Amino acid sequence: MPTFDSVIYNASIITVNPDFDIIPDGVIGIKDGRIATVEARDVNPTLPSASERIDGQGGIVMPGLVNTHTHLPMTLFRGLADDLPLLTWLNEHIFPAEKTMLCPETVYAGALLACAEMLLSGTTCCCDGYFYEDDAAKAIAISGIRAVAAQGVIDFPAPGVPDPSLNIQAASAFVDKWQGVSPTITPSIFCHSPYTCSSETLKAAKKATREYDVLFQIHVAETKAEREHCLAEHGVTPVRYLANLGMLDQKTLLVHAIWVDDEDIEIIAQNGANVSVTTESEMKLASGIAPLPEFIKSGVTVGLGTDGCASNNDLDLFREMDVTAKLHKVNSCDPCVADAQTILKLATIGGANAIGLDHLIGSVEPGKQADLIIIDTNKPHLTPVYNLPSLIVYSASGADVRDVLVDGKTVLRNRQLLTSDVNKIMANVNRMRITD
Questions:
Q1: CATH number of the domain at 65-354, out of 2.10.260.10, 2.120.10.30, 1.20.1250.20, 3.20.20.140?
Q2: Percentages helix, strand, coil for the chain, rounded to the nearest 5?
Q3: Is the pTM above the cut of 0.85?
Q4: Pairing of strands 372-375, 50-63
Q5: For residue 272, is pLDDT > 90?
Q6: Per-residue pLDDT tens for 148-203?
Q7: What is the homologous superfamily of the domain 4-63+362-417 according to CATH?
Q8: Residues in CB range of 243: below 8 A, 6 or more apart
């Protein structure tokens, strides 16, 4: 009987383990979906027996990227309403489009497209939140990607939940249905924001996530106007408002957290809450710059996200890493800020930690699930190689990802998605796009 189900060899390995070990010529053995061994080839020049051998062809093997904030079905709105202020974008374009376009069929199609886009660009796990999330979860399951999937909660009629008084009930039903069903799908609840959900709704949603022991997600402090509105209405900042309601703990993911002060950051750190920074979306909507270096200095767990395609307009975390690193360098006038290794951690183990999955994914270590990507480095823009983290963050793109494994299963081989037909997915979404 073979020793392993599969073996990856002939590649450099960026482990992202606690010591950030890099193995120039490594071997990874995979058994029952988990990483069983990681070692240098010179330890044992003879490859172990395996049912499948995957030749890295001199490329790079690393943990799959973790996208800590997505709205998967919003691929349907890619480029629909660009170059607008956030509230104009939301109230005059996105909310009306969601009202007229969203249904189980379109959500499923948009989510399937998003999953294909992420797998093709090296993301093996995402943290999603949207409406009709049951249909998004079905697409996630078929695609083979790993996900934290959350039913959206908002205090006005929403797609799939026309009666706002049933929003927590609908979210709880979603969690109850999906909890423990799939090894790669973890249910969650997503409250849209403090200004679209009442304090009663927020507390009820957080209570439900505590009862189910799942992640609570919320947009917060995204714009200056949101901060000013919260100060005027409640006398405190959005972060302190949530803290006063008892919302912040290790299973809370705060998305954006741009307009925060030093006290807010300290409150987040003290309560163990996590932050998802979505740099490109925040830049495109001119929302501001999240204080990433300050979060890290204060010990806040931070992950990178893309946000939805309506505000980014892509789901490529390689681009997100590059832009995030450079933005914080120029913003601080310090080229040493947001170095490549730090940013690479945010897109892997940091993101996994932020969404509560760091015990399973985010690094190449024995015992972790085999969520891995292989990058083809035999390309002009990836030649020569001096520093692997630098190469990944500043030179590579999602298009350089050759193979992807999730839970030990190959879902992308030689740039070909094995779980679904990409051309059919794109044709289906094109058929659904808004034409008026």
A1: 3.20.20.140
A2: 40, 25, 35
A3: yes
A4: antiparallel
A5: yes
A6: 999 999 999 999 999 999 999 999 999 999 999 999 999 999 999 999 999 999 99
A7: Urease, subunit C, domain 1 (2.30.40.10)
A8: 267, 271
